[in-house]
Amino acid sequence: MWGINRPPAPDRGPTLRPAAITIPLMSLAAEYRQQFTWRSWSLIFEEVPLQPGQTILDLGCGIGDQARELASRGCKVIGLDGNQELIDAAILEQPPNCEFLTCDLRNPPNPGIRVDGIWSSFVAAYFTNLVELLRRWSPVLSPEGWIAITEIDDFFGHEPLSPRTKSLLQAFADDALTAGRYDFHMGGKLQSCLAQAGFAVSRVLTLPDRELSFQGAAPPEVVEAWRTRFQRMPRLQAICGSEFANVQEEFLSCLSRHDHVSTAKVISCIAMKSADS
Length: 277
Ligand SMILES: C[S@@+](CC[C@H](N)C(=O)[O-])C[C@H]1O[C@@H](n2cnc3c(N)ncnc32)[C@H](O)[C@@H]1O
Hints:
Bound molecules: S-adenosylmethionine
Shape: globular
CATH architecture: 3-Layer(aba) Sandwich
């Protein structure tokens, strides 16, 4: 239906695998599967104007966990992602009423149909010019359609951390933003990006998250997930140089402390397509 050709590999930003470090692909799929259990999906689904029979696009669907959940609510879901291995993992699961296709989101195909909803979770930060991306996808959404975007704000916002560790993490975030790879503060920009792209924001949620935004000590599996994430950040390693091990260990210790506090927030914005967009 979509006639989507396999795109060149997209720039997947700083949290994805570097060419220089080999991590088995299924481990990334397994990581995503584990992360699914830590998010507050049901709180978002409750607020999205989902109706049985709707056709929904899931932009950056990863291994298809959210597509499966949306389809279980009576919708047909088309999941798009630039990572062929993740798409293969999604297809392998064979969730009913889901179709998964490889697509570079920077180049929307002409599908020949309009969808009722666009879902995108933890993908927006990869697009430092999100307004431009939203404008490109807007024509695919029907005039009455909805869009739900979820993203983290202040990704490394965890306390207490030393000033030195904070400044190295900030240097890494600044470098990613300047290079157009990733915006670690995208969660707080969703609302204005949607408005600038012509959408009418109807709901903004701040969600608890067992890995990304929580208070008190993290369980060991969450600390291990963060350790794996740090190992997937070669640019952070380069920026920290010989201090990388210290930065990583201080950050992981911070997550394990009983007085740990997240300033990081998971934000979900739900919007309708404005009449004039
Ligand atoms: C952090 S994962 C989120 C996966 C899933 N949406 C979730 O919430 O668990 C980000 C996803 O965005 C995809 N992605 C990033 N940049 C992309 C691009 N330019 N085109 C297509 N997919 C992209 C990655 O392949 C990855 O699957």
